[in-house]
Amino acid sequence: MNFKLLGRSGLRVSELCLGTMTFGDDWGWGASKDESRKVFDMFVNRGGNFIDTACNYTEGTSEKFVGEFVASDRDYFVVATKYTLMGDTWNRKDPNLGGNSRKNLRRSVEASLRRMNTDHIDLLYLHMWDFTTPVLEVMRGVDDLVRAGKVLYFGFSDTPAWIVSYAIGLAEQYGLTRPVAIQLPYSVASRDGERALIPMAKQFDLAVTSWGMLAGGVLTGKYSVDSDQPKRYNSASERGMALAKKVAEIAQEIGRSPAQVAIRWVHQQARHLIPIIGARTAAQLEDNLGVLDFELSHEDLTVLNGISEFKRGFPLDFLSDDHVRGLIFGETFAQIDNHRA
């Protein structure tokens, strides 16, 4: 496995990140501790050092397992966790036990440090934007934790691009800790991130960690056949089934699994993009890790891009139109260094 710099930082992380939302069976569908350990060890043996969890995953069990698994070589691992959300069994009548406030930020980080039995979090994400907390409050609160040595790097998950952009502006204006990463859902079936978040990340040199690459299992093809495999949804949409069929056809042609094709498509989209792979079993992870062993051809990428029927919408499609570029640049566009285009 190769390593990448995490956004505009000197932090080196593996080109795949291990998602651990399945660590623990508190929610009724995750992995036991023994199976979680097998998944973790397989990822590490392939060279992975980047681990993703959250304060509420499996009611905190995920963080406990991660903390125990990385303890023997803590400094080798880059552990990312998140704050914002409540667990299902927490006191849901407490108005300050969730959200993005400084109060919940500090409380959540302290609790995560205890669960993982560590003195620092390598990468802390704000999990979901709450539309109530001032952005400056978040940025000052995070900066305090970084200065205290409890958090090393910061990022945003599931947050609008305009919020992240504003946060970067505040960080640069006031000398606060600058975000280095964003996290979002991204797949052949769901390319909404290409409208604003992914172009923003490229502009500001943010790493992009992506989840949901299998579209809830739809792209693996398991909704296309009768089976007793666990399924998140009762059925898949007509569009989802068509996408899964094309992914399966390409997979058969190149001798790979549909899951590998779907994840590899994400892996090849951008230099700063890091797929988060998760699994309930070691066998599932072994299959997912197969994405390191091949590349999709230009023709296969073109086919997958075409069947997704994705439109970036205004203003990106408008500004990318040859006629509009001609109005701006005349006949000189091809002669201009347009690395940001």
Describe the structure.
By secondary structure, the chain is of the alpha/beta class. The protein has helices at 33-45, 61-70, 102-116, 135-147, 161-174, 197-204, 238-254, 258-267, 282-289, 298-307, 316-320, 322-329, and strands spanning 3-5, 12-14, 17-19, 50-52, 78-83, 121-126, 151-157, 181-185, 207-211, 273-278. It has an 8-stranded parallel barrel with strand order 3-4-5-6-7-8-9-10, surrounded by 5 helices. A hairpin with a 6-residue loop joins strand 1 (3-5) and strand 2. The model has no long low-confidence stretch (mean pLDDT 93).
Helix content: 25-40%
| Low-confidence spans | none
CATH domain topology of the largest domain: TIM Barrel
Number of domains: 2
Tell me the total number of β-strands.
10
Question: Could you name the CATH homologous superfamily of the largest domain?
Answer: NADP-dependent oxidoreductase domain
Instruction: Supply the CATH architecture of the largest domain.
Output: Alpha-Beta Barrel
- The overall pLDDT average reads 93
Distance between the termini: 30 Å
CATH class of the largest domain: Alpha Beta
β-sheet strand percentage: 5-15%
Strand arrangement in the largest pleated sheet: 3-4-5-6-7-8-9-10
Per DSSP, the total helix count is 12
Q: Radius of gyration, rounded? A: 21 Å
Largest sheet: 8 strands, parallel, barrel
Gross geometry = globular
Helix/strand class: alpha/beta
